[in-house]
Structures are given as C-alpha cells and as structure tokens.
Specification:
alpha+beta, iron, Jelly Rolls, dioxygenase, four-stranded antiparallel β-sheet, binds 2-oxoglutaric acid, eight-stranded antiparallel β-sheet, about 15% strand, binds fe (ii) ion, about 550 residues
Length: about 550
C-alpha cells in the first residue's frame, strides 16, 4: 500500500512540532528526527568543549584540595605523634590536655571530616555548567535526541547496507572515522531499536554489545544487562528456545535479577515439553527486517538512495541542456538548464543561488528550525524526525532583500507566477535526516488542503540545494526510478500537476538519509492560481510537455 502525501499529517508536523529541543537555535531533528540538526551540533561544538573543560578543571582542582585535606587528617590520625592509641591508656585520658584533644577529635574534627567527605561540591559545578549552557542559548540534546541519533544510525544502516560490526568499528561508507563504539554504546543503540520495537536491529546491536564486552577490560556493560534485551528480541524473531537458554544464563549469572526467573517461566510456557527438555538443539538465528512498513516502496527508495538509478536509454538520447534566455534580462545572463527527463518534466537549474544568498537564508532560518515529532502514517507511532522543520521555517518575501530576490528569480526560472506561491521553506537535515516518499501536491480526497491559502494545488516545486552532503542525501523519485545528488547552488524543478490539474503520481519523491556531511535545502511550492496565462490548463492530461521540455514560455 502506498502512503500518500497527507496534508493533515503535515499540519500535525508543523503545528504539533515538539518544541522540546530548541529555543533560540531551535532544533530540527534526528540523528534524526535523529537526529539533532547539524546546525545545532555545530553550534554546540563551538563553545561547549572549552567551557566544559574549564569547569571540569576547576572541579578537579577543588576535589584534589578536598581529598588532600582528608588525606592529611588520615595521616595525622595514623601518625604516632598524635598518640591516638594512647587514648586507650587511662593515664592519658586523665591528663586534661589529652582528654581535651581526644574529645575534640571525636567531635569537632570528626564533624569537619564528615562534612569534608560529603561536600564534594559537585552540585555547585553542575549548576555552573547548566547555567553556562543556558547562557549559550543553545538547547542541549537530551535522551530523546540520543534515541533519535540511534534510530538515525539504524536507518543509515538499512539504506546504505552498513554492516553493524563496521559501524561499531567506526567504518562509515568505507572510511574509518577513527572512533569506535564500546559495548555500552552498542547496547544503547540496541536499546533504542528495542524501544522502537525494531527487533531486527535490537538483535544485531545486542550481539555486537556482547561480542565487545567479552574483550573489553574492564567491560563497559554487564552481560546480564544485555541478555534480557537480547533474549526478548530472539523471542520476537521467532526463536523462544534460544531466548529461554539465554534467560536461564541470565538467571544463573545474576540470581537476584528481578525478572529473570519470571522470564524463564514465560519462555518455557511458549515451548512444548519436548522442546523445553532438550535445550541443546537450538534453531539457527533468523533475523528478519521490520515489516511494519511498506517494504516494497522502502526497498525501491533505499535502492535509489544507493545510487542504483534506472536507465532509460531512449529518454537519455532525447534530453539536453540549454540556455534559458526567453526574457530580455536573461539575454545577458541566461540560466543553465539541464533536462533530466520528460513526462514528467524534471530539470536542474545550474548555479542559480550564490554563496552570499545561501548564507543569508541559513542565517534567517536557523533560529526557527525545530525538531519535529511526527506520526508514522503507517504504524501510527511517533517518530522523531530530524528532517522536518516547523511552520516557522518559512521565510517571507519581505524579510530580507535576498528572499525577495530569490522569489523574483524563481519567476524568471520557471515562468510561473510567484504571487500565489508559498514562502520559501528551509530544512537542515541531521544525521540520518531524511524525508520519506511523498507527493508535494494534495490529493483529491484532501479537500481541505491549502483551502485557507485559496491558491489551489501545488502546481510545481523548486528545490534549491544550499549545501552538498558528502555522501547520501540524494533526492529520488520512487515511481520514476531516478534521482539526483544535491549540488550546491543548483535547483531541482518539476511540475506536480498534469496539464488538466490532476496530480501527477509519477512525481512521488523522497530525500535520502544523509550519511556524511550536511544537507540544507530550500523549497518553493508554486500554486495553481495566477498561472492561467503562464501555464494554462488543458482538457487532457498529456498536453504536458508538448513544449518539449522548455518551461512554458511566456
Ligand atoms: O530534500 C529533498 O531532497 C526533498 C525535500 C522534499 O521533497 C520536500 O521538502 O518536500
Ligand atoms: Fe517534496
């Protein structure tokens, strides 16, 4: 089944966006929406390291002083000079000075020592760090963000076929990034998968965590912590027998574990007497991917994201590039247009936005980006999206001369009237940030979509690439089997509607997860109203690009 673009769903994304992560520099999502938007991580990196190091240094100095004091008390007590042992000697206690000193030691000194032992001042330093973070006006990631980052990793793994061991060894897309994950890190990724009811990845990562703690000295996680998750994932993957064996082991290595015994009984109840009694003959582990999603479309999407585009040699023989100079102004500085395909028409405008303009757009958009928690259309579950932004990610024409200029340019590029188009929308994709297959137009049944705008449906989309991710992050068309990698300064353009106003389902598209690097895009959605003389509608659908790929001339 296809999950079509659902406008109400997006309304929820925009208006119901979780504000948890962000003010000032508001966060989009993440490693999506793992999760944290790259722009936030960059900001965090900027000041955070120095400040934390400084506060930690101060804390360590104060702790060192405190422990030194305690040590000198200990030495004093031990030292023969103090004749503390003599306290046991009746004669010593009868000496008033000694008696006084002994009492002092046992009262005020002891109070001082116990105070010293208790007052490690951690709270004070933690408060300092917290305050400093608030002053920074950067929202720091929380547990939810960590979860999102983990889910982002899993998505990357699926999309780009990244092996769990490689990832844990810090090998991303064949490059060693120098950092490796500990058993505890792997456990956390597995736990995020478990919380998302993704038992395929739970199993993968818990296995990796087990492998790692076996060779770590000291292990970063207890085996018993891992086993419970691992066993449950095995059970979910149809292997209660192995789940039972592992849970028995759990009960053995951690006899006080609060759930181990109960779980053993529970797994036993899943097995026939015959299976229960013979626990040597274990079925192999069959780990299958999560099937809650539209697996067919997902596979197409992921394949395209890996760059496996479909070739259409006939089409390729017809496409071409041209200079668009159909207005006086353009005679001096024509647009460079590359036609990717016809029917439906998809083109790339080369070098249509400058570095300066990009920097302004990013600057204007950054305080508005927010992370969103979105509802998965299929499963109804909430997912953290590090790919979407709040409604306030829109940039209005009058906000800055650069925005105005870009809007004027879109008119020249597309020959479509900009008066009814939506404001420029900016998105910053974080680790694993992506956008599932969707349509930009509202479907017939979505009768209320764009109603308040009163401008009709989205006739066309212009997508400016405002950065160039190192790997991943392609825009792909799942029905057409093609895609394109973002090239900074360029813009992708297509019509969403056929000439009779019908939504063109061939335009279904998606943004692939960013594997390395950063992806910024700006979207311009152009509406039907106002195009009566620009792209007049027709009685049939296929008048479509009789204009042979030229954007409808004025
Ligand atoms: O970022 C991309 O490549 C596509 C974004 C998109 O489809 C959208 O924002 O509607
Ligand atoms: Fe889109």
């Amino acid at each position: 089944m296809r999950v079509l673009f659902n406008f109400r769903y997006w309304l929820r994304v925009w208006f119901g966006a979780s504000l948890a992560f962000g003010l000032c520099i508001m966060i989009c999502h993440g490693a999506g929406d793992v999760f944290t938007a790259m722009v936030d991580l960059e900001n965090l990196l900027a000041g955070e390291a120095d400040m934390t190091a400084q506060v930690l240094d101060e804390y360590i100095a104060s702790e060192t002083y405190r422990l030194q004091q305690l040590k000198s008390f200990a030495n004093e007590y031990l030292s023969k000079n103090h004749n503390f042992d003599e306290g046991r000697d009746e004669n010593v206690v009868t000496n008033p000075i000694n008696a006084y000193l002994l009492i002092k030691r046992l009262t005020s000194d002891w109070k001082y020592i116990t105070n010293l032992m208790q007052s490690n001042n951690a709270e004070y330093f933690i408060k300092n760090i917290t305050q400093e973070r608030l002053n920074n006006q950067v929202k720091y990631p929380d547990d939810e963000d960590l979860d999102g980052a983990a889910i982002g990793l899993l998505r990357l793994q699926d999309t780009y076929h990244l092996n769990t061991k490689d990832l844990a060894n810090g090998v991303v897309a064949g490059n060693n990034v120098g950092k490796t994950l500990s058993g505890q890190d792997c456990f956390e990724v597995g736990r995020a998968a478990y919380n998302a009811k993704d038992y395929y990845h739970t199993l993968e990562w818990m296995q990796e965590a087990l492998d790692r703690i076996k060779i770590e000295k000291p292990p970063t996680k207890r085996e018993s912590d891992i086993l419970e998750y691992y066993a449950y994932a095995l059970y979910q993957q149809g292997n209660p027998k192995r789940a039972l064996v592992l849970t028995k082991r759990l009960a053995q290595i951690d006899p006080t574990h609060p759930r181990a015994k109960g779980n053993v009984e529970w797994y036993e109840s899943m097995l026939s007497d015959e299976h229960k009694s013979d626990l040597h003959d274990l079925p192999p582990i069959k780990n299958v991917r999560d099937t809650r999603y539209d697996i067919e479309e997902r596979e197409v999407y992921e394949k395209l994201c890996r760059g496996k585009f479909e070739r259409d040699l006939e089409m390729e023989s017809k496409v071409y590039c041209y200079y668009k100079k159909d207005r006086d102004f353009l005679k001096l500085a024509p647009f460079k247009v590359e036609i990717l395909r016809f029917e439906p028409l998809v083109v790339i405008f080369h070098e249509v936005v400058s570095d300066y303009e990009i920097s302004i757009v990013k600057q204007l958009a950054t305080p508005r980006l927010k992370r969103a928690t979105v509802q998965n259309a299929k499963t109804g579950e909430l997912e953290h999206a590090n790919y979407r932004i709040s409604k306030s990610g829109w940039l209005k024409d009058h906000e800055h001369p650069v925005i105005h200029r870009i809007n004027e340019r879109i008119d020249l590029m597309t020959n479509l009237n900009q008066e009814t188009s939506e404001d420029l929308q900016v998105a910053n994709y974080g680790i694993g940030g992506h956008y599932d297959p969707h349509f930009d137009f509202a479907r017939k049944e979505e009768v209320n979509a764009f109603k308040t705008l009163n401008t009709g449906n989205r006739i066309a989309t212009v997508l400016f690439y405002m950065s160039q991710p190192e790997t991943g992050g392609a825009t792909v068309y799942t029905e057409l089997g093609i895609g394109t990698y973002p090239q900074v300064h360029n813009a992708l353009f297509w019509y969403n509607l056929k000439r009779d106003g019908e939504g063109d389902v061939r335009t279904r598209h998606a943004a692939c997860p960013v594997l390395t690097g950063v992806k910024w895009v700006s979207n311009k959605w152009i509406h039907e109203r106002g195009q009566e003389f620009r792209r007049p509608c027709a009685l049939t659908q296929d008048v479509n690009e009789k204009y042979v790929g030229d954007l409808t001339p004025i």
